[in-house]
Design a protein that fits this description.
CATH class: Alpha Beta
Strand content: 15-25%
Low-confidence stretches: none
Number of strands: 10
Helix content: 25-40%
Mean pLDDT: 93
CATH architecture: Alpha-Beta Barrel
Strand order of the largest sheet: 7-6-5-4-3-2-1-8
Number of helices: 7
Distance between the termini: 7 Å
């Protein structure tokens, strides 16, 4: 069972996620997000993450220069591409930077499912997320869920993580309906955009692990 807590901004929230048993800690590098970090802030937080917990950098349509600068300053283990990066771009980033890549794919209805197959062939992991509302400035972290039954009988040739509108109250049901063994949360453990609730972090991890 893997649980990713994304969008952490403070030492206290990192400590809460680690103590709760999170397997992945996510840092956001996207200025439009309320969870955005500078490289210096992220490096300081990354230093608090023990060995064995995966440090994830979330980027959105970042170019090579931005990725190189970030990776030169922040020690991370996994790149999360959360923009409109093409399968070709995903494959290139994997080869260019030598890190595993998780590609986020937004789902709203059945017409979005073929994309998951395309990206599964090039990414190391998939993040199956809710598609953002039209015109939203944020590609994720919108507290929206999709119809989990859409992926209930699907499988891909690469590990995948479920995201989108998950909370301590619904994560067990989401896992039951989809068969997910990895889940990702950001807004679902917040009191306000970008402000993590330490008790909700603990409750989410407990609920997710208790569902297995």
């Amino acid at each position: 069972m893997h649980v990713k807590i994304c969008g952490l901004k403070t030492p206290e929230s990192v400590e809460a996620a680690v103590n709760a048993g999170a397997s992945h800690i996510g840092f956001v590098f996207f200025p439009k997000s309320p969870r955005h970090l500078t490289y210096r802030q992220a490096a300081e937080l990354a230093a608090l993450v023990p060995e064995g917990i995966t440090k994830v950098a979330l980027t959105v349509n970042a170019d090579d220069k931005a990725l190189a600068e970030m990776l030169g300053k922040v020690p991370v283990d996994l790149l999360q591409l959360h923009g409109s990066e093409s399968p070709k771009r995903v494959a290139y980033i994997k080869e260019r930077f030598g890190l595993p890549v998780m590609k986020a794919v937004g789902v709203a209805d059945a017409s979005d499912l073929p994309q998951l197959v395309e990206y599964a062939n090039v990414a190391d992991q998939l993040l199956v997320d809710a598609k953002p509302p039209k015109g939203s400035p944020l590609p994720g972290g919108n507290a929206l869920a999709f119809d989990w039954r859409l992926i209930a009988d699907l499988d891909w040739p690469t590990p995948w993580m479920l995201a989108g509108g998950l909370t301590p109250d619904n994560v067990a049901e989401a896992m039951r309906l989809t068969g997910a063994s990895m889940v990702d949360v950001s807004s679902g453990v917040e009191n306000a955009p970008g402000v993590k609730d330490l008790d909700k972090i603990a409750a989410f991890v407990k609920a997710a692990k208790g569902a297995v």
